[in-house]
Amino acid sequence: MARQRLGKQPARYAFLLNPHAGIRLSKCPTCDRPTHPRKFALLIHADGWGPLAMGKTGKYCARCELIIVHKNELDAELAHCMATLAPDAVGREYVVLGTMDRKVWQKGLHTEGQSLAEALEHSAEFKKVLQLEVDWGGWRPAEESTA
Hints:
Layout: E1 14-18, E2 36-46, E3 50-61, E4 66-70, H1 71-85, E5 94-100, H2 102-110, H3 116-121, E6 123-125, E7 128-130
Parallel strand pairs: 1-4, 1-7
Antiparallel strand pairs: 2-3, 2-5, 3-4, 5-6
């Protein structure tokens, strides 16, 4: 049986959540070209609250259509947001599900709010989710060398 897609929009963008606070990616990890900052409306599911649309600026590689978000920055913004919405949900797990059309997200900021069905009409899941693997380098015995 085919898996049901999130949202009505076709899947777009690749996504990388960088868990390493000490590593900042100024180049795309897949094509090694420079990235640039761009704002996206991310659709997030937060335990203890539910779905949430949040504007977040992250690094973007236009060639690979890759969005890179740093986990420690997203954690801080979510904690600040949840402190007013649902204080008991602060610090709980969350999953970044996809993106939402920016114009629809901005419209939702200035109105009473949207229903979940309306938000999903303008949402798209990610084409793929990447994991960042870091080789910390350093000296190793010859048999462990990757060269």
